[in-house]
Amino acid sequence: EAGVAQSPRYKIIEKRQSVAFWCNPISGHATLYWYQQILGQGPKLLIQFQNNGVVDDSQLPKDRFSAERLKGVDSTLKIQPAKLEDSAVYLCASSLRVNTEAFFGQGTRLTVV
Amino acid sequence: LAKTTQPISMDSYEGQEVNITCSHNNIATNDYITWYQQFPSQGPRFIIQGYKTKVTNEVASLFIPADRKSSTLSLPRVSLSDTAVYYCLVGERGSGGGADGLTFGKGTHLIIQP
Predict the structure, then answer these.
(1) Mean pLDDT estimate for chain B
(2) Nearest Cα to A29, choosing from A94, A104, A112?
(3) Per-residue confidence band for B100, with pLDDT thresholds at 50, 70 and 90
């Protein structure tokens, strides 16, 4: 079974630039999550989708971050404009439905310089 | 959400049993306890989940006392490849182990030596 796919694996950008990350969840998984993991810390939930609807985006900095999940499958997370403190690993996870085991991708490591 | 407290780091040796304890004094009636494992440069991986007493799978055991204010993840006969960060999470969920609204703390850095 294919896992959660994320791209790119690494990205380096200058502050104030924009960047987008892509996630392809496990086939059939209705729930999709984006997490931000800063070095030395645990992952922090940014947004959770159920199919193509947002369930929880309470910790998403909406002035600069946006995410969408068109057609309830793939998802993109965008940062515009990026700040130095956005340097982190961005993890995508999916689960079959709410309250079932979540599977994580390898993440995208973002460095903002 | 119930806050969890776990040791920042632990070390042990190959072949030993490792027990990592997590404190969650404010656990709610509907909360489950879930443990995730994370290797460097990888996303977290679900290990085990429980509500009370003892749960065992092919990877680990989870011990939960009657008051549920703490839990202990037990890894039998660890190897070098068990070196990772282990996260204890508490939250409402069903019988699976979903990440819904989960708050990851800093976790426990487990280092296994030869």
Answers:
(1) 89
(2) A94
(3) low
